[in-house]
Amino acid sequence: MKSVSIKSIVFVIIVAIATVLLAVKMYPEEKAIVVKPLKKSYKAGVVFTFDDNYIEDWYVADLLLHPYGWKATFFVTWYGSLTPEQKTKLHYLKDNGHDIAAHGYNHLNALKYYKQFGMKKYIKDDILTLKSAMAKDGFDVHSFAYPDGARDSTLDNELLNYFSIIRGTTYEEIPPQSQYCYYEGKRVVYGLGIDDDYKQFNIPYYKSLMDYAKKHNKIVIFYGHKTVPDADEKLETPLSALEELCKYAKNKGLKFYTIDDLAKL
User: Fold this and answer.
1) pLDDT tens for residues 111-146?
2) Which residues, in sequence order, are bridge partners of residue 145?
3) In the chain, where are the structural domains located?
4) The CATH number of domain 45-264 is 3.20.20.370
5) Contacts (Cβ under 8 Å, ≥6 apart) of 73
6) Model's pTM, two decimal places?
7) Cβ-based neighbour number of residue 105 at 10 Å
């Protein structure tokens, strides 16, 4: 009985194989269709960002640059010291299509603070406090910029639990193809400073970065601080330079993005 059973099993296997071979011959297998994920395309553009609490100056800048259709992201800090009038102007900027974003409640150097007091305390003191205070005034912030550009990967990973996208900083006047101030589809981006006290302050150089962005379908990211008619102190972006860059971007057909826009690409 045992040998008969084995023969029967073998016979069944042979019949099954023959059936499969016959089916393959009659109905050849079609090539599998590999569905590749679609790469989201976006228009070449520029992002202007500004840090700290120079709200009156940003308001004036918007009045000047609004005709160019510009958009900017304003990373706000020292929120507890803002006046009702400043908050009203922030809402005005928000209603005009700009982003209001986070720059820490007390502008803490994130790297030094979390290493000295721990990550939990840093998040509580400078992040959660800010998000809560701004939310009460109708600002639901989704992006963050590091004060002083002080960051590491540990901070990035932690803060991405609270924000959709984070901006760091990069420096120096190097060839456009070697710069880090382009959006690369990641949640951590880097901006290049356009305040006139930076070594790389050079309008033709900034234009060359925009040219590179246009040619290679990239988005270039800049950051400044106080927007003023006459820059004679540190951390000031001349309005004339900013207007020239906005005009150049518009003439080149570059799209104005905010940091939150990048998170949605």
Assistant:
1) 999 999 999 999 999 999 999 999 999 999 999 999
2) 167
3) 45-264
4) yes
5) 47, 48, 49, 50, 98, 99, 101, 143, 258, 259, 260
6) 0.85
7) 22
